[in-house]
Amino acid sequence: MNTKQHFRLAVIPGDGIGKEVIDEGLRVINHLEKSSNGKFSFETDYFPWGCEYYLENGKMMAEDGLEQIKNHDAIYFGAVGFPNVPDHVSLWGLRIAICQGLDQWANIRPVEFLPGVESPLNHPDRDHLNWVLVRENTEGEYSGIGGRNFTGRGPGKEVAVQSSIFTEEGCERIIRHAFELARTRKRKKVTSVTKSNAQQYGMVLWDEVFERVSKDYPDVETDQWLVDAMAAQFVLHPEDLEVVVASNLLADILSDLGSALAGSLGIAASANLNPDRKYPSMFESVHGSAPDIAGQGIANPIGAIGSAALMLENLGLQNEAELINKAIRETTKEGLLTADIGGKNSTKEVTDGIISHLSKIH
Ligand code: ATP
Ligand code: MG
């Protein structure tokens, strides 16, 4: 456990609502810092990277950007994306550059159902459903390997190739991580998801590694699914899910499904972990920059505040992380909700509600 009590955060607000929700997460952290009576403190360094930076400088982050943030204790990240910058430029230029560059190979995405939040799911035990997606975060379908116009046959006949990489070591470390996480939960179960009937090399290797690693965890229940069937399972039998481990692309898709089922992309938190602790981990909401609602003060701050809780947990402040999660639940239960989850409160009002519950329970 990290015993250091002064933490240096690298803050990358990014674009659109990323900037708005990051401010809210930092307000919650400041509140906890003030009421900790000197038990812990934070120092924040801001990095103005993102699409505006790209439009001025032709790149999404500073040339030596990874050097500038690699010695911080954690990275708190908003979102990137601008209507006039192609999504693959913004994603690869910043978010994936950091995840791959700082070897943040485990992306943890809890799916949490909150009391008082409208959900498209009609389930008798809805308020108590929760599971965690463990997403491989450095290889798989996001290898960046391939190319356009392979045959040189010209417009209308173009062939593009996009390759995936599955290394045995990469599969093993993320699968082990999922098993270790399962051991910390009430129900010890890991579900592995692939499409190994159609992707017959990399995903078959993944399945083999899963079967081998599972032998080291006889106390953990397992099952293996194809992603199409798992998508249906998310909707039909979410009570059977506990820890779900999948490749980069498949887990990304399933996590949007999970957060939409829970009510909104706006409430989903995530952690990009370097479990080896050689580099800082990065904490961000699952949602993107949402240009359609940016600047209106109506973005849901819960995903970013929940990500701040994951960050505090990673820094060894488990109690404070739990307090935040409790305060979030109290706030939604009370009916303080932004528009995406059926309410009419502003971003700021929801955060104020969370902070006032923190003051009550702290
Ligand atoms: P990006 O290109 O950065 O991924 P996007 O247009 O795909 O942006 P997302 O942020 O991924 O947008 O979200 C899709 C939609 O979900 C948004 O258009 C927005 O309406 C809604 N949404 C996402 N996050 C939030 C939030 N925090 N609060 C309210 N609504 C949200
Ligand atoms: Mg998006």
Automatic annotation (TrEMBL):
Residues 8-354 form the Isopropylmalate dehydrogenase-like domain. One of its GO terms (molecular function) is tartrate dehydrogenase activity. InterPro entries: ICDH/IPMDH, IsoPropMal-DH-like_dom, TTC_DH. Gene3D superfamilies: Isopropylmalate Dehydrogenase (3.40.718.10). Its EC number is 1.1.1.93. Transmembrane segments: none annotated. Its cofactor is Mn(2+); Mg(2+). It comes from the Bacteria. Keywords: Manganese, Metal-binding, NAD, Oxidoreductase. Belongs to the isocitrate and isopropylmalate dehydrogenases family. This is Tartrate dehydrogenase.
